[in-house]
Amino acid sequence: MRDSSVPFRIAAARGVLDAGCWANAATLAAAGAGWWIAASWAQMPVARVLLAIVSTTSGGVALWLALRIAIDRRLFAALDRAASDPAREHGDALAALDRALADLGWIDGAKAGRALDARVRGTIGLCRRSVVTAFVQGFAVGIAIAVGGF
After folding, report:
1. How many CA atoms lie within 13 A of 125 on its CB side?
2. CA distance 106 to 102
3. Which of 58, 69, 81, 122 has its CA 20 to 30 A from that of 128?
4. What is the 3-state secondary structure (H, E, C) of the chain?
5. What's the rounded Cα separation, in Å, for the pair 127 and 57?
6. 88 Cβ partners below 8 Å, 6+ apart?
7. Where does residue 149 fall: left (phi above 0), alpha (psi -120 to 50 degrees), or beta otherwise?
8. Are 134 and 30 in contact (CB under 8 A)?
9. Could you tell me the pTM of the whole model?
């Protein structure tokens, strides 16, 4: 028996991943602004270094999360196509996905066989990390603007 909620769960995951992309874009833009502000702080060397470190770290984290999200977006798109095939149960599509990921060495045996709900929760975790990274970087730039008088 086919679960009629599967396409909606997959669509929810894809929407969350799209939101994560926007959060990463905001982080990268704020990291660039942080570097621009840090470059103009000649009188505040400690603050300049701290802002540069925060901007570099959050930019690196955002790039890593963007990579993970880009991969997951494509995997969920493929899962959507496979799950919408009337000849295939969604469990078959998940098993095929796990085989492919295991063959690539991207997951170990303990993660294979996870339910779709666990995978969707994983995308929510990626999005949360992206939003937290954007918030930290945005907060650092906001403080820098307030302190620097821009």
Report:
1. 8
2. 6
3. 81
4. CCCCCHHHHHHHHHHHHHHHHHHHHHHHHHHHHHHHHHHCCCCCHHHHHHHHHHHHHHHHHHHHHHHHHHHHHHHHHHHHHHHCCCCCCHHHHHHHHHHHHHHHCCCCCCCCCCCHHHHHHHHHHHHHHHHHHHHHHHHHHHHHHHHHCC
5. 18
6. 82
7. left
8. yes
9. 0.84
CA–CA distances in Å: residue 4 to residues 7, 95, 108: 7, 18, 29
Is there a contact between 34 and 139 (Cβ–Cβ < 8 Å)? no
Tokens at 84, concatenated:
């919408």
How does pLDDT run across 85-122, given as a tens digit for each residue?
Answer: 776 665 688 888 888 888 888 888 778 888 899 999 99
Amino acid at 136: V
Picking from 45, 33, 12, the residue whose alpha carbon sits closest to that of residue 119 is 12
